[in-house]
Amino acid sequence: TREKMTARLLRTTLALLSLGLFAVLKAATISCRNEEGDAVDWFIFYKLPKRQDKESGDTGLEYLYLDSTIRSWRRSEQLMNTTESALGRTLQPLYEAYASKSNSTAYLIYNDGAPTSANYSRKYGHTKGLLLWNRIQGFWLIHSIPRFPPIPEEGYNYPSTGRRNGQSGICITFKYNQYEAIDSQLLVCNPNVYSCSIPATFHQDLVHMPQLCARSSSLMTPDRHLATLQSAQGQNFLHFAKSDSFLDDIFTAWMAQELKIHLLTETWQRKRQELPSNCSLPYHVYNIKAIKISRQSYFGSYQDHAKWCISQKGTKTRWTCIGDLNRGPYQAFRSGGFICTQNRHIYQAFQRLVLYYEDCN
């Protein structure tokens, strides 16, 4: 009868809609993830340096972890080189996308110290990161680890060279509508892309990433650019991107003056490759010299390859920035960037790490 046919058609239509909705929801699950594999809006990791004393038992793979669902650092239960770590969980869809050769998912992986190369490239930015996305959402991971991650066909691992020093990174989940702004920021940073797949479906919206993927240079690059970004759950971020034609320390000449705050900076303090604290401009920049993990545990900046800064304690505007440039004379000639937030819990977590910093001479 007509009623039965209508009912059957309705059931079929509903079943197809359900399947389609399931496919859409599954496609939207590209996200930063915690150690349980649950989607989070953002997370930050701070890999601790490997201790020189054998009694500590440290492997150089332990890390502190903070995300959008918790208020302060947690010591991770996993090690950096396991697929159960926050990075291992987050990167899992990358390997799935690579294996499936999906036309609906794109990725871009960059590092001036690429795992596939013996040398560090000075031709490109001093930038390290990974983006994975579809037309619904994705994530941007910004970090400080040379030789990381391996190319997708090799699966997840953590480089042995990344054990000795401290390392930092931030993963942020973004809706697709933020990727056009990210695309422009990456152009300025000029990353060394060593693995990528950007299907044609994205080329109309994203102009520069396919060029970076193909290693074709763009004629016009601004010397610097500031972008406002918003995470999938509405957290606001500012991204500072400087090119190699902006010949100055990004902290002193731009970030501190733009944010109108004195900054405490933690970057790799290599001998003869560091800049002193600077009080020559209205807003000052001070070098953090030591990091405290607990009352008994601390380490010096020379052991720390992490790159972050916070506003000086006592200022009304509390900023935290995480990125990929050091305070060093040669870094003025390199492109790179920092992503900043006024999230109170992120600021407090980093502020508690500061043991002492260097004043201006």
TrEMBL record:
Annotated localization: Lysosome
InterPro entries: DNase_II (IPR004947)
Catalyzed reactions: Endonucleolytic cleavage to nucleoside 3'-phosphates and 3'-phosphooligonucleotide end-products
Enzyme class: hydrolase
Family as reported in the entry's similarity comment: Belongs to the DNase II family.
GO molecular function term, any single one: deoxyribonuclease II activity
EC nos: 3.1.22.1
Signal peptide bounds: 1-27
Gene giving rise to this polypeptide: DNASE2B
GO cellular component: extracellular region; lysosome
Pfam family, any one: DNase_II
Organism: Sciurus vulgaris
Protein name listed in UniProt: Deoxyribonuclease-2-beta
